[in-house]
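Researcher: We're teaching a course module on how sequence relates to structure. For the next exercise, students receive a sequence and then see the predicted structure as tokens, so they can try to spot secondary structure elements on their own. Here is the exercise chain.
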Amino acid sequence: MMLIVAQSVMASARGAPETFADLADQVSPSVVNITTSTTVAGRAGPQGIVPEGSPFEDFFREFQDRQGPSQPRRSSALGSGFVISEDGYIVTNNHVIESADEITIEFFSGEELPAEVVGTDPNTDIALLKVDSDEPLPFVPFGDSDTARVGDWVMAMGNPLGQGFSVSAGIVSARNRELSGTYDDYIQTDAAINRGNSGGPLFNMAGEVIGVNTAILSPNGGSIGIGFSMASNVVTRVVDQLQEYGETRRGWLGVRIQDVTDDVAEALDLASSEGALVSDVPEGPAAEAGMEAGDVIVSFDGKKVTDTRQLVRIVGNTTVGKTVRVVVNRDGETQTLRVTLGRREDTETAVPASQEVVPDQPSSMDLMGLTLAPLDDEMRENLELGGDVEGLAVMDVDPTSEAYEKGLRAGDVITEAGQDNVASLGDFETRLQDARDAGRKSILLLVRRGGDPRFVALSLEQEPEAAPAEE
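Model: And here is the predicted structure for the students to work with:
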């Protein structure tokens, strides 16, 4: 008993709340349960409920035939959300309402209203809904997620497992978590989050929403204290655009980029591995501003660039049409370019798959664990390259080599070495020798696979003499 009292006193001394009841009373009227209804198509034909060739296959096929074709059915799903304005705008997760035919909002009072989708953003898994109400609705404000500190108390509210309104509390376990999305910025919390909590709010102790509960990490489907809420400073920008345009409008620079690794930094003679390395500049804003492959972006619109993830987020959060200053490191010197941003959503296209098979060609050579041959018209056709593409085709890669370890494979095309074009084996050997003469420990290669370029730095140390490959 004495131990319990002592622990209670220590908790109070640390500023732990004695109760979350007042906060729960304050925000509960603004938190909603969401029920969706979706029409699921019926079975088009016999289902493979037993393996093909099984002695039971005929039995189950006859059973299914006796049942007749199945009819379309209704499927329901549950989630959470919260009201952000008195005129009925509601925020939730996109996956909660995706493909729904009908959306019903249940308020804390028990009242139900139908909702319409204003807009969605699958990239951040955010959706904005709207209900029409005769009376002003209670709502909650967004807070500044950047001020949340690891260890701060937070409270989650929602509809876990369809059990109705429920509250759980915990702390901020970590910040700036990334799961799988380009624009991810999650707050990790140990407040219990379960299925059905998706789309619900994560509150700070001031009753402000600092995150939208989105995902959990769990081996069993239930909460183990590792939950993720999309940070409010990401959500508010998305919501503002959905409310104004019904869609997102993210800035677009028009480059392909990759992180600057230590070996790439050494190959480029950079002082550090910070920045974003430009691997390709297709037609677009950056190309019009004079940006080139091999540039390292070190500053964007006055903000220091540390890596590619940060740059993507900064660019995406910048207003479409804004002209910004982009500082790049090129050939050891900094240059400032003025780029007028385009809109990413207008330009997103699928990346073609890479080709794995390259026909045998004469006049090849083994270098750095790579069997290389100059491109010819047949290779360009097989690799779906333009007729004006020059470079060396990778015919084979030694599986014990550094090149293999760094991802080079047969079918790749090397178009630059040491930031100069290569069109022949002689060009490649010259670039290697130039790098050695300059005292470089590695050389930077521009490698294209299925049209998608990236830079790879390979070590020059103890590189043996080139030898002709067998034909």
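Model: If you want an answer key for the exercise: Residues 1-14, 44-50, 349-362, 462-471 have pLDDT under 50 and may be disordered. DSSP finds eleven helices and 29 strands in the chain.
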